[in-house]
Structures are given as C-alpha cells and as structure tokens.
Amino acid sequence: MTLNPVTPEFVSQLRAQLPGPCFGEVTPGYLEEPRGRWRGQAGLLLRPGTTEEAATVVRMAHEARVPVVPYGGGTGLVGGQIATEGPAPVLLSLERMRAVRGIWPEENVMVAEAGAILSDIRDAASGVDRLFPLTIAAKGSAQIGGNLATNAGGLNVLRYGNARDLCLGIEAILPNGEIFHGLKRLRKDNSGYDLRNLLIGSEGSLGLITAAALKLFPKPSSEGTALMVVPSPEAALSLLALARDHLGEGISAFELMHRTGLEFLNETMPDVRLPFADLPDWFVLIDIGLARGLDPAGALEALFAEALDKGLASDGLIAQSDAQRQAFWAVRESIPEANRRIGSVSSHDISVPLSVVSDFIARGNEAIAALGPYRVNCFGHLGDGNLHYNVFAPMGEMRGAYVAQRDAVKRTVHDLVHQMGGSVSAEHGVGRLKVEDLERYGDPAKLSAMRAIKAALDPRGIMNPGVILRG
Amino acid sequence: MTLNPVTPEFVSQLRAQLPGPCFGEVTPGYLEEPRGRWRGQAGLLLRPGTTEEAATVVRMAHEARVPVVPYGGGTGLVGGQIATEGPAPVLLSLERMRAVRGIWPEENVMVAEAGAILSDIRDAASGVDRLFPLTIAAKGSAQIGGNLATNAGGLNVLRYGNARDLCLGIEAILPNGEIFHGLKRLRKDNSGYDLRNLLIGSEGSLGLITAAALKLFPKPSSEGTALMVVPSPEAALSLLALARDHLGEGISAFELMHRTGLEFLNETMPDVRLPFADLPDWFVLIDIGLARGLDPAGALEALFAEALDKGLASDGLIAQSDAQRQAFWAVRESIPEANRRIGSVSSHDISVPLSVVSDFIARGNEAIAALGPYRVNCFGHLGDGNLHYNVFAPMGEMRGAYVAQRDAVKRTVHDLVHQMGGSVSAEHGVGRLKVEDLERYGDPAKLSAMRAIKAALDPRGIMNPGVILRG
To answer: Do you know which SUPFAM superfamilies this protein is assigned to (chains A, B) (predicted)?
Structure first.
C-alpha cells in the first residue's frame, strides 16, 4: 500500500474545508516522547474542534491516502504517537476537543471528549461526588482518548478494571471518515459486534476515538492506606488474598515495590521522604475504600495484626492522616520518574498469571544476573499480575556500556514471560516498540485475524501505520 | 455467497477425519427453542470431543462451503441456535466438551470448556470456596460457551458485570478452521486487537468459542436478601442510590418487579408462595453480599429504616434464613416461566439510560394502552437499566386474537426505546429475531464496519448465517 505525504495541494484542500483554528504549528513537543528514544515527523498538525471536523480530516486523508497519526497527551511509552517512518503524516491532535459533554450522577455516567485530560475528568467526577477511578502517573497530561486507545491500566485496576472496563460507549471516526455514533449510556447493550472494544486498545490503528461515555462510581465513604513490609513477593500474594478475605472489593490498590526503587528515589529524588529507616527488600502499598460504617484504619490494623501473626508481614505503617496517605502514595508514584532519571537499559511492562509471579521474579533475576551485573527494579500492580520489570546498569556505571545488550536483556525477559503464559505488553500497549514482539509471541491465528480486520476497516492503511501491525 | 447443503459425500469426508462419537442423532430437541416460535433444520449433528475435532469440522465446512450452526444449551431466546433458512447446516454441539480444565483459586481463575453447564461451573467454583457470579434463569442447561457467545447478563451484572466482563481469555475456532489460542489467565494483556471481545457477543457468527478462562471472586463473607415495596420505579432508583451509599459494591442484585408478575404467578404457578398478602404495584428484590465483620440483616434494616423515612419504601421483608432468601428469589426466578405459561404477545429485552427508566415505563404503558387492552409485565435488572417489558393479551382472553398486532406492539416499544437512547437488545442478543431491528435502529457506520469484519473473518459466510447480519 502506498501512502502519500502531505502536499501543498492537500493542505489547501483541507484549508477549504476546515476553519483556521484547526491548523496548528508542529512544535518540537509533538515529535518527542517521554523516554527520548524516538523522534517523530509530521507533515501537518491538525486540531479539530468538533467531531465533524475530525471526520473531515480522516475522510480527506483517506481519499488522498495520507497517513494520520492520532495525538493525545503524548505520554505513551511505546511510540504509538511517534511516526518515524514513511511519508510525514498528518498529526491529528484532540487537544481542542476537551469538553465534558454531560454528567449524570444518578446514572454514574459522564460523557467526555477524547481530548479531556484524565485529571480533569477525575476532578469533574469528584465535583458531583463521584469517582472516575482510572489513575496513572501521567494523569496530569494524558488524555482520555489516548487512555482508551491504549486501554490504559494504572493503579486501580484491581478494583475497577482497565480503561476498557470503564467505558460504556464511544464516538469514533472510522478510517474511511464515517462517524460511529456509539455514545450510549447503557450498562447492557448486545446489539451486534463489539466495535467499542475493538477500537479500544487498537492504538488509533482502526479509527479515532472522539468521545466516550465513562462509568463513574460512588466515592468510597472512607479511605485508608498502609505500607507493609513483606518477606517475599509470594508472601505479598498471600497478604493480598488475606486482605480480600478481610475486605472484599474494598481494596482499591495493591502495589508491590522493591528496595531498588527506594534506592533510586534516594539517588535521584531526595525530596521524596522515604517512610522506612531501614530500607526493606520488598514492601506493598495497600489502599482501601470502604462503605459507610467501616473504619479504614481499624480494618488495616486488623489486617496487619493477622498478617504479622501469619508471617506475611514484618513491619507496617498505617496512614493516620490524608497527608500521610499522600506521602505513602508519593513513594509509589515517584518511582517511574526515578527510573527515568537513572535511565534503564531495558524496561518491560509484563504480566503473568498470579500464581507464577513469584517464580517469574526469581527466574528473571537469575537470568538477568547471568547476563551481567545489572540492577533490577521490579515493581507494579501485583493484584493484576502486572510488573514493571526494569533493568539498569550497575550502580555508578553509565548505561551506555550496557545499551548494546538491550536486545539480549529484553529477549531474555520476554522469552521467560511468554514461556510462563504471560504477556509482554500488559498495560502500555504495543505501539511501534513491540511490533516485533507481537509477531514473535502472538498467536498466529489471532495475528491473521488482526491483519484481516485492519485490511477490512482501513484498506488504505492510513490510520497510525506501523502501530501494532507492520505497515 | 452460495452455501452448500450437507451431502453424503461431505459426510463421508467427515467420517474419514472424525471418530464415531462425534456423529450424533438430530433428535427433535435440537430443532426447537424455548419460545416455540421457530423450528430449525439440520443436515447433520456433530459433537466434537476436542478442540482439534471442532477445528476439523469448521475447516472442512469452510472448504465445502457448508453452513455451521453452533449449538450450546439451546436456551437462547432470539433464535441464534435455530437455522430456519438456507441449506440444512451442520449443527455443531459442544455437549461433549464440558471439562473444567483447571482451577486456580489463588488466582481467582477457572478454565472451562465451552460445553460446561453454567450451574456446573458455579458449583466447581463453589467447591474451591470461590464464586462464579454469572447466573440466569436457564443456568441448569445453558452452557458457558453460549453464555459468552451471546454475552449473557442475568441477575448479578450490577456487581460483577456481563459475561464478557467475567472472561479473561478464550480459545476459539475461527471461520477458516484455525484455532485461536487465547486462554491466557491474565488480568492485563494489551497485545493487539481485542479478538476476545469481538467473538464474545458475536453469537457464533465470527467463530466458535471452545473454552474460556473465567474470572472467579472471593465468596462474600455473608449474604442477605430483602423485598421492599416502593411507590414507583423512580423511587426504586432512588432506593438503589441510597443502597449504594450504604453498602458500596456490596449490592449483588437489585431487581424491579410489578404486580402483574405476581398475578401471573398466582394464575400459573400457585406453588410459588407470594410474600405479600396485598399485592403491591411495584417492589424490588435487593441481594447483598458483604465482607467480614458486617451483618447483612442489620445493614438491610438500616437501609429500610432510612428508605421508609425518605418515602422510598412503604413495606419491607428482610430474609431471616436461607430458606427465606430462597423463597424471595423463587418469586423473581419464576416470573419468566409464568410469562411463558401465560404466553406473551410480544416480549422485549430492552435497556435505557438509568435516568429515563421511569419515564420509559410511563410512556411505554401509555403507548401500549393506546393499542389495545393489553397487560404489561415489566420487570428486570433495574440497576442495569435493563427491563423485560413484556406485553400480554387481556386477562381471560386468548393471545391468538392479539398476535396479529405483534409487530405493531414490538415496533411501538422499540421505537420508544430507540428514541430514548436505549437498546432493543440488552442481554438476549440479536440472533435471527432482531436482525431487522438492528438494521432499523443500529448505527449505520457500525453496521458497515460489522459487515466488513464479517466478510474479512468469514468470507464464505459459513458461521451461523443469518444471525446478527442478514446472510
């Protein structure tokens, strides 16, 4: 399939159809991504202000066979927003479509445009005494459209699910420019194929999400947070089971962290106050939100007492104030930034079945040690079996010397994940970074079906070419 | 697309590839459906014992262009399992594939074959002290494969979601006979397009689900059930909001019922004991399951006291024993059977946004009254906005005289649902019954995309032709 670059003729055709504010300047930020691994290219930046304008862009790009790269908050970690190859594309930014179109607190539903910033959506929900639970480190700049396009995960998946689980309906532009009007505010709707879930997680390669009907939740009546030192990842899993036994669905987050993460914080972000005098090898952050009549601190104390008794925890801190809760969370939420400041040789966003998490960590560490004197910072969403298993150069050494081994490190980790029934793309998506991994580890029948679906919905291959599937 | 009938030559080709037990006799039951509206046809009944055998059937049918109709428990209400037109198909029954392949209680996961009966799956979960929450009236004969193919809803959707929300992965045969190995036991897996959710709800028209990895849940520590008389559907919705405020995610079911349902029970199933001396116009069944340390009866009493105070309930019964809980549930679960015994003129499985439920009922009743002296039994899963709005002949009259108006009744209800932003197919699916409705009310861009997907994955149109999309 031949794609065409943005030509002056194409631009003047667009100018005839779209109002002036749709045309923006491609400042450097649009061509960069958080890890600094790639630099993108763009023939034109378009910022539609309405769904109809977005549809016009896609329809005209379809007609002219010009590639379109959807651009949300630019926070993606797998290069889905960065076109490095092929003709310089139209960069289609949703930044002007950020309205909350409606909130129905009595239905627990909000309809928001794709360009709305995640934290603004959370605030809007909070304003009507509701919770929109999706939360990720990049929540201050990530847009909900991108969250849905990549099926973002984050910190509250254990209780509330991934982005796709939080979406009741979408409005989207299909690759031929048609508008899919699917913004129904329904909890049950079995009327044909699940186009919503097909577009969610397709990373802009099957269409452009322009708005979404989102699930809200009653705010828990009271919340609590604890840090508990655990003897091992295995004990952490048993502690999670015990916590579920105590608290049912009341557990909002259950995050595993390793001493390496604390060392990185010490090294790069000394302002983040560490809650432990002696750094523990492994510890968990437990966040709970309870219904009326329950006391979170009391519940966490009871849990800790039993965990101590059963040898599942050796030390624990229960937040006594909102400030303390925030301080505990600051540790967890600063670790990704500390990782970036140290600079990984290779980062891995993986998931494995819960019962092999502990074995995976042990075998992974052994395999990495066999490759060299690496430091591993393994942390993540334990309740989801989702670990960020990130590999760094030894303390005091520059990563430059080790980057040559990046592919070997990645292959070692990913082979092990695959062998243990896991996924090498848990919550960050495939983007352009993991296309080869998908080809290597993906199910062949699924890959054939995906290619057939891509060809059927986007026969000219204009939508985010090179993402998920080779262009 | 021309499809071929099952010929003696095709049968002998199959006999050469498949062991004897795969070949079954087409007894009348396979050609009937619960509402007795259609009678099906079958050229051959095949009952594969393994995934590979099922793949052989589909591959050979693909090669010979012979239609394949997947058959689960035969409990579907929209004719998805009944082929009335075209060449007599292969009926592909999963009845011999009913193994639970594995249970991982510590992961809250079970892998079961598609032919496993829903109640057997629930029992298997219960055997390891876990809950598989999907429950529908037909649970004793419905198979999990059919539940997934139709994205079944049922009584616990409010808390645990639809069938699709309870599935982590599937194994399936694609229309060309390839096996999609997607049985991963992962909570997070963003590795490509969501083929799982595309097949779930496609009612066998995009492939055949042969096994599924299912989510289990910790059993609530204690459970409770109440019936509360409400002044109106609107009050019932406010009561639900109040219940959520009291109990958070602890509410497992919230079912609205009308006096007509009780009258039907009186008339056709006098063994079902009615809990009210004076039949109320509207009442709800509330089922809760709580974590450790909470007392369900106490929680329901507190809820009732506040509801009474706020005018949201006028009478209430709180189950004091398991026998009473079962008696309350028997009322709700017997209503569909009572409806069948009375025999509806037209039944409607619809959903609307929660905030218009009450308005929908009022306007629907008015519109139906304008058509004739019908009785309406409106009941259902209020928390999901999912109502079964069923229309019956007047008391003492045979429905025969009214059946001629069936299309007008259906059209009246469905037009109103569509106008109010709802779905005319909430939890039962489209099947062959609602193909025209989908064409009338469906989003045109979605329908085009669905046809493109069908053509891409099943170019010969062999999989359940005529279901969802016109064959």
So the answer is: FAD-binding/transporter-associated domain-like (SSF56176), FAD-linked oxidases, C-terminal domain (SSF55103)
B198, B241, B428 ranked by CB distance to A190: nearest: B428
Domain boundaries, chain B: 8-95, 100-218, 222-419
Q: How far apart are CA A59 and CA A54, in angstroms?
A: 9
Q: What is the pLDDT of residues B414-436, one digit of tens each?
A: 999 999 999 999 999 999 999 99
Alpha carbon distance B335, B380 (integer Å) = 10
The shortest CB-CB distance from A426 to any of B106, B190, B429 is to B190
The model's confidence at residue B1, banded by pLDDT at 50, 70 and 90, is: low
Report residue A356's pLDDT band, with 50, 70 and 90 as the boundaries: very high
Q: Which of A104, A188, A292 sits opposite B157 (nearest CB)?
A: A188
CA A373 to chain centre: 30
In B, which residues are within 8 Å of A434 by CB distance? 191
Q: Which amino acid is at B361?
A: I
Q: Does domain B222-419 have CATH number 3.30.70.2190?
A: yes
Residues 6+ apart with CB under 8 A from A121: A100, A110, A112, A132, A144, A214
Query: Is pTM beyond 0.90 here?
Result: yes
Distances (CA, A) of A386 to A348, A417, A420: 10, 11, 13
What backbone torsions phi and psi does residue B288 show, to the nearest 5 degrees?
A: -130, 150
Instruction: Give φ, ψ of B357 to 5 degrees.
Output: -55, -50
Q: Please give the DSSP secondary-structure letter assigned to residue B361.
A: H
Under CATH, what is the fold of the domain A8-95?
A: 3.30.43
Q: What is the DSSP string of B235-269?
A: HHHHHHHHHHHHHGGGEEEEEEEEHHHHHHHHHH-
Distance from C-alpha of A305 to C-alpha of B448, rounded to nearest angstrom: 59
A95-151 confidence digits (pLDDT tens)? 999 999 999 999 999 999 999 999 999 999 999 999 999 999 899 999 999 999 999
Scanning A76-116, the segments in alpha helix (DSSP H) are: none
Residue B11 CB neighbour total at 10 angstroms: 15
Distance of alpha carbon B319 from alpha carbon A318, whole angstroms = 38
Residues of A in contact with B355 (CB under 8 A): 104, 106-107
The rounded distance, in Å, linking the Cα atoms of A6 and B130 is 57
Burial class (CB in 10 A: 0-12, 13-18, 19+), A27: exposed
CB pairs under 8 A between A and B: 302
For residues A113 and B462, what is the distance between their CA atoms, to the nearest angstrom? 39
Q: Would you say B210 and B173 are in contact if contact means Cβ atoms under 8 Å apart?
A: yes
Burial, B88: exposed, middle or buried (Cβ in 10 Å; 0-12, 13-18, 19+)? middle
Q: Which residues of A touch B442 (CB under 8 A)?
A: 191-192
Given its phi and psi angles, is residue B386 left (phi above 0), alpha (psi -120 to 50 degrees) or beta? beta
Instruction: Judge: B426–A189 Cβ closer than 8 Å, yes or no.
Output: yes
How would you classify the pairing of strands B90-93 and B44-46? parallel
Q: Helix crossing, B233-247 with B357-371: angle to 10°?
A: 160
| Domain A100-218, CATH number (from 3.30.360.10, 3.40.50.300, 3.30.465.10, 3.40.640.10) | 3.30.465.10
Phi, psi of A390 (to 5 degrees): -110, 135
Q: How far apart are CA A166 and CA B127, in angstroms?
A: 31
Give the C-alpha separation, B207 to B210, whole Å. 9
* Cα(A330)–Cα(A321) distance, integer angstroms: 14
